[in-house]
Write a structure and sequence with these properties.
Elements lengths: L6 H4 L42 E6 L2 E6 L6 H7 L17 E6 L9 H7 L7 E3 L12
Antiparallel strand pairs: 1-2, 1-3, 3-4
Length: 140
């Protein structure tokens, strides 16, 4: 006799048809294997704030500046209420130099003025806040 299939019998939420299996020939119990995957630590997810902020250090103090397209790092920091030291805003005095700790991918490449003023400090991650401009679009 054939069992007639219905739409309801094909749904995964219904229990499947149980069949009995033959008893193994040996008298030893068949070991059960564990197929469930258990995770001892939660999955690591990227911190979204790291993708939208530049972490900088100036005079021993660190602070974050949120991504602000096409603005200078200095203008964005001031607009966000950060206490940043600056003077000429032309890139010649170097007073606004900061060390970028994280998020340098949000900034455009150093320009001529930064290369002239900072010279070898550029390799250590230093930038002029008044000359460092956020990219027009975020690149991840």
């Amino acid at each position: 006799m054939r069992k007639q299939l219905t739409v309801g019998s094909l749904l995964p939420t219904r229990p499947s048809v149980q069949t009995t299996s033959p008893v193994p020939a040996s008298k030893e119990p068949v070991p059960q294997t564990q197929t469930a995957f258990t995770r001892s630590t939660p999955p690591v997810r990227p911190d979204k704030t790291n993708l939208t902020q530049v972490q900088v250090k100036q005079k021993g103090q660190s602070f974050s500046v949120r991504y602000a397209p096409c603005q200078t790092l200095l203008a964005a920091a001031l607009a966000q209420g950060q206490n940043i030291t600056y003077k000429c805003q032309q890139g010649s005095c170097g007073k606004c130099s900061v060390q970028v700790l994280h998020g340098d991918f949000l900034l455009d490449a150093p320009g001529v003025q930064e290369k002239t003023t900072l010279d070898k400090k550029l390799a250590s991650g230093y930038r002029l806040a008044c000359q460092s401009t956020f990219r027009s679009t975020r690149r991840m």
